[in-house]
User: Fold these one by one.
Assistant:
Number 1:
Amino acid sequence: MLRRNTRLRREYLYRKSLEGKERQHYEKKRRLREALDEGKPIPTELRNEELALRREIDLEDKDSAVPRSLIDDEYAGAALREPKILLTTSRNPSAPLTQFVKELKVVFPNSQRMNRGGQVISEIVESCRSHDITDLVLVHEHRGQPDGLIVCHLPFGPTAYFGLLNVVTRHDIKDRKAMGKMSEAYPHLILDNFTTKTGERTANIVKHLFPVPKPDSKRIITFANRDDYISFRHHVYEKHGGPKSLDLKEVGPRFELRLYQIKRGTVDQAEAQNEFVLRPYMNTAKKQKSLGA
Amino acid sequence: MAMDLDEPLDAEKGEAALRRLRDADPALYLSPSADLAAAAREASKHLYASLVPFSPAQPPPLSNLLAGPAFDAEQIWSQIELLSRPLIPHLRRQLRRLEQQPPSQPPPRTESKSADAEEKSEEEEDGEGDEELEELDDVDDEEESEEEEKEELGLEGEAGNEVEDEFFKIKDLDKFMVKGEEAEYGGGAKQGKKKKKTENWMEEDSDSEDEEYLDEDEEDDDEHLDLEDFDDEEEEEEGAVGDIMYKDFFQEADDQKVRKKGGSKKVQFKDEPDKPEVDDKNDDGNDEQGLSTHEKARLKMHAKIEEMEKANLEPSTWTMQGEVNASSRPKNSALEVDLDFEHNVRPAPVITEEVTASLEEMIKKRIIEGHFDDVEKPSPLQFKSPKEQKDLDESKSKKGLAELYEDDYAQKAGLAPAPLSISDELKNEAKTLFKRICLKLDALSHFHFAPKPVIEDMSIQANVPALAMEEIAPVAVSDAAMLAPEEIFEGKGDVKEEAELTQAERKRRRANKKRRYAGSHKERPAKMQKD
C-alpha cells in the first residue's frame, strides 16, 4: 500500500508537470484549426510545424480533442463503471436524520447505508477505498433538522461541503396514498444554471453520483441553481398523448443545498487544498454569485 | 392774585379771538387783514397756554407763546412745533382708543372726522371751518352747563346761612370788577391790531405766510379743542384756591364751605382715576403690541431650549444606546421591537407556490426537449490499438554473425528486400484468404462465371530428342559422339582447378557447397510433402 501510494504520488507529479506542455501543444493546434476554418493565413510561428499539427488534428477524436485538466482527472474514468455510494450520518443520529438518510438511500441508486457507530472518518475512508466505493456521503443534523451534506469522491477526492435548508421529507407528509411509491429506476438528471467554473465543477461532482440512465427513464432528479441556492427536486412524469400533455408528480424529499467549500482531497485530509470557499462576511458577498447567473 | 387774575383774562381774550375767527366770513380770509391776524395770534397764545401742562417735557422749553408783533409767522410756528411735536403721538393713541370705544365718547369721532377732512382739497376747507365752528358751539354749551352748576352751588350756600347774604353781595362785586378789567384789556388788543395792520400793509409778500399761518391756526384750534375739557378742570382747581382765600376772611362759613368744596374735590377724585386707567391701558397696549412679538419669539425659543435640554439630560431608551447587554435591557423588551440590521448573506429562498411552479415549468420544458444532463456511457470501442505480441524465437540461430551483418548491409543498401516479419506473413496469409473468399463469392453471384484457367508450368526436359527419326549418322556411332559440345559439357561453373584458385575463391566455393548441402536438406522435406 505504501509503495502504491508513493508510485501514485510520483505519477501525479509527473503528469502535473506534463500538463503545461500539453496545454501549449493544444493551444498551437487550436490556433491552427481556427486559421484553417476561417480561411486566414497560418501564423508565422506555426508554419514550420504546420504539417505535423495538421496530421495530429486529423487524427483527433472526441477524447483527445481537448486536453483535460488535471484537477478534473478524478472523474476521467468515472463513467467506465457505475458509482457505488456509501451513506452514513454523524454520530448519534436522531430519528428524523435516520429517516432522511433512508430516503436518500432510495434517491441515490447503487447506494447503501451504514450506521456510523463510533467509527472515525479516517477509518471509514480507508474501508471505502478497500471496497472500491466511489462516493462517500455524510449527512449532519442540528436538533433533528438535517443541515449538512458532505460528498467525498474516492479514491482521491474532491470533497464538496453543502449546507441543507428547507428540508421536507416523505415522512413529514402524512398522506401516503397521495404520495405514492418511489421509483428506483436510474433517473435522468437536470442541472440548471451552473455556468461558472465553480458551478461546472459542482455540477460534475453531483452528476457522477448517479449512473447512466436508460433513454426512456421516467424519473427526473433536478438540481436548479437560484442565487447560489441549489434546489433539489425529485419528480416522476408521464406522457399520455401528444408532447404537450405531460404530468409531473413530485416524489420524495425536497431541500435546498448551499455550497460552502470544495476541497481537492478526501474528507479525512484536513491539509488538502481548498478549491472554493464561501466568504459571506465580505461586503460584496450580496452581489457575488459563485455558481451561476 | 395778579397772576390768578391775569390768567382768566388771557383765557377770555383767547376765547374771544377764537369767536371772532369763527364768526368771520370766509371771504375775509382771501385778503390780508390786520384784525384777523391779531385775533389769530391771540387765539394761538390761548391754545398754547392750554397745551403747556400736557407736554411730556416738564417744564416745557417755552412756558408761554411769544406771539407779539415783533415775531414773524415762521417764528411763532416753530415755537408751537417745539411743544406740539412730542404731543402728537400721544394724542393719536388717545384717538385710536376713542375710536375703539365709539358709544362712550361721540365728540372725539367728529374730531377724527375733521382731521380726515383736512387732508381733502383746499376748496373743502370752508366746509371744515363750518364743522369746527359747530364743535366750538358744542364746547360753549358744555361750559354754560358747568356755569349753571356753579350758580346752583352758590344758591344752596345762601339758603343755608344768613351770614352768606353779605358774602353773596361780595361775589357780585367781584364779577363786576372782572368785567370791567376785560373791557379795558380788550381795548389794548385793539391797539395791537392797528399796529399789525400797518405792518401787514407794508409787507406785501406776507400773503402766502398768512395763509399758512391760518392753516396752522386751524390745526392748533383742533388740538386745543380736544383739550378744553382739561382747561375746565384747571378752572375748577383755580376756583378752589380762590375759595381758600375767602376762607381766611370768613372762618365760621369756612367749615360749611369746606364740606361743599370737599364734595367738589370728590368729584375731582372721581375724574383722577380715569386718567391712570387711561395711562395703564396705554401701557398695557404698548406692552402687548411692542413686546408681544418679541416676547412670543423669546418664549418659543425658551420652550425649544428647555425641550432640547430635557431631551439631552434624560437617559435615552435602550434602543438608542449603543451596545446593550441583556442585563441592562428590560425584560421581554426585544420581543416587541423590530430590530433592523443588515445581512451580508443573501437569505435562503422561501419556497412558495410560484417558485415551485417556475421550477416545474423549467423541468417540463427540459423533458419535452429531451435535454438532460446525464452521465454519458463511454464508447465501447477502444481508441487504442492493441499492442503487438512478438513471439520469442528460442531456437538457435542458423546464420552466423557475419551473415547477419551482411544481410543488414544488403537491406540498407537496397540490394535485398527486408526480411518478412510476423506481421508481413500474417498480411500475406490474409491476402490469400481474401482472394479465396472473393473467388467463392464470384462463383456464387455470377451466372456466367468462368473459373480461372489452370496454367501448368512448363517443364523443360533435358536430354530428350525433338524427333525420333531415321538418322543420317551410322548406327555404329555412339550417342556421345553425336551430342553438341554444349550438351556434353555439364556446366557446373568449376572452370578452374583447385590449384589455380585464390584463397578467397577457394573459400567461396566451399561456402557454396555448404549452402547447396543445406538447400538439399531443406528440399528433401519439400519433396516428401510433394510426394
Number 2:
Amino acid sequence: MTALCWREISLRKSGRLILAGVSLAVARGELLGIVGPNGAGKTALLRCAAGLERGATGVVELAGVPLTRLAPHQRAQGMAFLPQQAETAWPITVSAAVALGRLPHAGRCPEADRRAVAWALDAVGMTSWAERPITTLSGGERALVMLARVLAVEAPVLLLDEPSAALDPQHQLATMELLCRLAQAGLAVCIVLHDLALAARFCQRIVLLQAGRVVADGTPEATLTDDHLQQVYAIRGIRHPIDGAHRLVAWERLPPSSGQAAAG
Amino acid sequence: MKGTRLGETKRLPGGSGGDYPPRWGPGAKPLVGLGAKPPRATTKTKVTHYYPELTLGLSLLILAALSLSIGASRLTVWDLLSNDPSQQTLAATIIGEIRLPRTLLAVLTGGSLGLSGAVLQGLLRNPLADPGVIGISATASLGAVLAFYFGLWSVAAGGICGGLLAALLLVTLAGRHASTLTLLLAGVALSSFAVALTALALNLAPSPLAAYEILFWLLGSVADRAWEQVGTAAPFILLGWLLLLRTGRGLSALALGEDVAQTLGIDLRRLRLTAVVGTALCVGASVAVTGSIGFVGLVVPHLLRPLVRHDAHRLLGVSTLGGAVLLLAADLAVRLAAVGQELKLGVATALVGAPFFLWQLLRMRGTP
C-alpha cells in the first residue's frame, strides 16, 4: 500500500536544477534510506514531500491523495517532518516542545496527547529530561527531543532529514533500531542519511541520488555497489559480511570518474 | 478522501500487525534500551498554574478602582453609592465623564501594546520586535498628524488609516512567499520613512503653535480624553484583539521554526496576515487617540515570558493584562506626581521603562 508518492518532481532554485523529475513511491512498512553526495537533492526531496517547496513542479501524493487537495491539518496528521537543523526560538521545556507535535490533532483528546508525548519521550530515552529547558541541552540531546516531537505526531509517514547526524554511536544505533521497529509496525519511514554503514545495515531499501536524479533504487546490495560508489561518490568501500548481511565502510577516495564529471 | 483516514495510526494495515506506538501494552520492551539516564521515580501530572493571569487580573481591578478614585476633585468610587443625591450626581459626572474614559483608554491602549508586542515577538521569533519596530506605530502617528495637519476628518480615523495602510504595505512589500526576515526589514524601512514624513510635516507646519501641538500630541497621553475618543477607537481595538488572540497556536508552533510550524499544519501566510492586520487595527486606533507610547510592547512580553514558561500561546493573554496594568500604573504615577505641567504618559513609560529594562538585561546577562 503506497503511503507516499513523488510523481515527476522537479525543482529549480535560482537557476540551478535541484531535482530533475524524480518519481518514487514508499509503502507502509518500508524504511527507505535516501543517500547521495552533498547537494544531490536529498533534503529537497523530503521538503517537497512535506509541501515546503512551493516552486516544485510535479505531484506529491499522500495515501493516494495529491498534497494540494489536502487541508493543512490533514497533511500535518498524515506525515511528520524532521528538519536537518533543530531550531528553538524560546527556552521552552522538553515536554512542551514534544507536545507541539500534537498540534495537528487540535487538542481533541487530551488523554491521547498526554500518552503520545509520554511515549515519544520514552522512545528516545528523554523522559527524565522532560522539565528541562530545551536550550540547556546538548546538540545531540536536542536532536533526540526533536525526533520525539516527530514521533508524537503519530503520523503514518515520517520524513526525517539526517536524524542521526548529531548523535553518538550508541544513540545512532538506538535511533535506527527504533525507526526499524516503527517501519515494522506499519509506518512509512523516509530517512536522509550520510552514513552509508548505517544505511546499508538498517534500510531495506535505498535510493541513491545524484544531481537531482535517482541513480539507483533497491536493496542495499543492489544500490551501494562498487560501481555506484565510484560513479556517485568517487570512493571505494570495503565490505565485511557479518551475520550474512551487507556491511559497508566508506574506505578511500578515488579520482573522479568520467560519469561524475559529466553529471556534476 | 476516499477510504483513507490520515489520522488513523493506531492499527496500520500492511505492517507486521504490531501496535503503533509499539511501546504500549503489557510486557512491551522499551524501544530504545538506554540505561544511561534513569527515569524519574514519580511521574508528575502537569497542572497549569494560573498565577500570572490571576495576579495581573487582580492588579488590573485594583488599579482601575484607584484610577477612578484619584483626580483633581476628592471623589472616589464609593461616592457613587453615597446617600446624598447631589454628591452622587457629581461623582457620576466626574467619574463617568472624565475618569472612566481615561481609565478605559489606558486599559485598551496598554492591552493593545502588550498583546501586539507578544504576537510580533512570537511571529518574528525575536524578543526585540514590537509594534514600533515593524512601523505600525510610526505610520499610525503619521496618519494622525496628516489628518490634524490638513484638518481632514478626525485625527483618530487618520491614525487607524495610517496603521491599516502600513499593514497593507507590509503585506504587499513582503510579498506572497516572503520570509519573516523580509517582513522585519520592510517594517524597519517603513518606520524610518514614516518618521521622516512626520518630521517633514512638523518642518512645514504653518505656525509654530501647530508644530508645538503636533509634537505635544506625539508624546502620548490618555489625559483629557472623552467618550468620543473611546467610541472611535474601541471597536477597532477590540476587533484587533480578536484577530491577535487567534494566533496563539501558530505562534507556539513557530517556536520550532517556520518549516516545522508549516508541517504541523499552520498556514504561515494567514498567520502573518492576521498578526499584521490585528496589530494595525489595535495599535493604529490606540496611537490615534493617545499618541505614541513606546516601550510597553517591548518590555511587557519580555518580562512575562518566563512566568508562562515561554509558552507563546499563553503569553498573549498575560501580555494583554500586563500591558493594561503597566499603562494604568504609569498613568496613575503621572497623575500623582503632577506638579504644574503634567508629565506625558509616553515620556513616563520610556523614562522608567528603559532603565528598568536595561537593568533586567544586565541581571540576565549570561543566562539564556
